[in-house]
Amino acid sequence: MNNRMKIFKGSKHFRLKQVAEGVFAAISVPGTGSVGNAAIIDLGDSTLVVDTFTTIEAAEDLREAATFLTESPVSYVINTHWHSDHTSGNQVFTPDAQIISTFATREIMNTFGKSRLAQQLSNPEPIYQAIAEVEKNLQQETDKKLKRELQWENASDRLYMDSLPNMAYTLPTITFDEQMSIHGRVRTVHLLTYGGGHTQSDAFVYLPEEKIAIMGDLVLSKHHPVMIHANPYEWLTILDRVELLEVEMIVPGHGKVCSMKELREVKEYINDIVKLVEDAVQSEKSIDDISVPKAYEDWYFSTYFKSNLKKIHDLIKEQSLLRTAEKAPVS
Predict the structure, then answer these.
(1) What domains appear along the chain, each with residue ranges and CATH number?
(2) pTM, two decimal places
């Protein structure tokens, strides 16, 4: 297997890292249209792929890598959650592979995800305008790290738009609610969900023998967790439960292969920014004045920090309104 990895011609979209015999992480190269990470698992008589990147071209390279490394067809694809950087390449693997997700993830893809793609196909202009706007702002950006990140994001957005005309939204064909196991000739993998944290429903892949977890965006390595569709409080509960499993190595949704150390860093990040927002609300200060804490200054996805603060602020306001409504006398 090692030899096959050495002679694989490679891909501009990802770098392969072998994390165990027959288990490979496909780590996204920034700015290439892959955006999220993926994984390849040799089951012995078939192959399983976890997540499918943002563009068709990146997904095609992933399929080629998977069949080359394992010498078996891809029979299963797992979508850890519904975001497009983990699902847009699904079409490349069908009809040969069964696509698997949680029931809730498929429901979101079948409603919101499908209609969003239809809207993008019928009216792509707003996305092109947003890309042009970022391009213009880049000329004035003086922060080198932020400039590089924005360049990567814009490059990936352009590649997504190149893929868009050929995109066929491809839904999961098998769903589960709590857990599901796939038994291959050489290994068994467990698909688990503890609910929704990063999104309304998040799944991950657990290989107990190898003590490996492929976590999707529940864990990011040295990247700001993305909270646009998150419930940070549930996210923390999910990560607490993952800590009870025997896990030594993690393939994160973004960033390099890591360990439980990075999972705990994600927990610290969520706790830290929840406290920052709570303190701002308590002292009646604007969240616009909150800067990225020193511990996270070097992390990527820094463009999401402000939207993370807003998400938590909105949740705190929502909870406050609910408490007020519960105390109000019934007329």
Answers:
(1) 2-111+168-317 (3.60.15.10)
(2) 0.94
